[in-house]
């Protein structure tokens, strides 16, 4: 298995398939002025499948497709099918903004997609429009209903919680976890976008969210997976109805348990979301390096994986790329 110098085993690979997105979420990218990559700069589906096969041979069992918005990539179900056929891949998931799910859900399910995460930061139409700079809330909600009808489980909803913007909705999202077949995940606001307005005081710690939900609903949250290898600490309500999770990257970093690396849409291997170094796998693939040579480069890069991010420390420096360019 892939292992870094801190003894962490890596079995989870996130693959961005495009930097393009039809939303303009305020914490991710500026409203205007984004310059997208040319198609020739993106990894082809065949290149992604080849690289995935190499990673699978090194112990990667989980793949998550991201963007940008991954469903802006044409015929993504073809790639899903290709990756579902890679020996050793046991879990194939995708993170999406939900806009295209009405049209693509059936194809994705038939192709072999196992799980899906939908980014949704508000249940109020006006606030949703302010955050995403798009008036698409009803379309996203309909997409959630559609993907659920095809039996994909779990369907997770990712809510980035920002103080004085949408933190007043956390209880409504928790109720959604109790009334719909969704797992709600509350994500602390991270400094990853250009001009995203991030300040530490905008972060709502997971502990505060958890206490608010318990108080408002008069129910206790029972941990079922806490500080494990997954980024989310999972809780269920004590009456057995509903699951929620907390990704506490700022207040309770989980770096010591991190089991993930990621590939950008232009083929760069990043060993941390906040990395300042990338390894160019696309260049190796397109210059004719064989699988064994690429495998050795991957092993060396993962061995040098960072101990952790530095968000709460004075020496923290934001990565040069935005979230959409890195891969969500």
Shape, principal axes of CA atoms: globular
End-to-end CA span: 24 Å
Residues in helices, as a percent range: 25-40%
The counted number of beta strands is 14
Order of helical and strand elements: EEEHEHEHEHHEHEHEEEEEEHHH
Q: Could you tell me the mean pLDDT?
A: 93
Radius of gyration: 19 Å
Superfamily (CATH H level) name: Aldolase class I
Largest sheet: 12 strands, mixed
CATH architecture: Alpha-Beta Barrel
Under CATH, the topology can be stated as TIM Barrel
By secondary-structure content and strand pairing, the structural class works out as alpha/beta
Beta strand %: 15-25%
Number of helix segments? 10
- Spans of at least 5 consecutive residues with low confidence: none
The top-level CATH class is Alpha Beta
Placed side by side, the strands forming the largest sheet appear as: 9-10-11-8-7-6-5-4-3-12-13-14
Architecture overview:
The chain has 328 residues and is α/β, with parallel strands linked by helices. The chain has one domain: Aldolase class I (TIM Barrel, Alpha-Beta Barrel), CATH 3.20.20.70. α6 links the parallel β7 and β8. α1 packs parallel to α2 and α6 packs across α7.
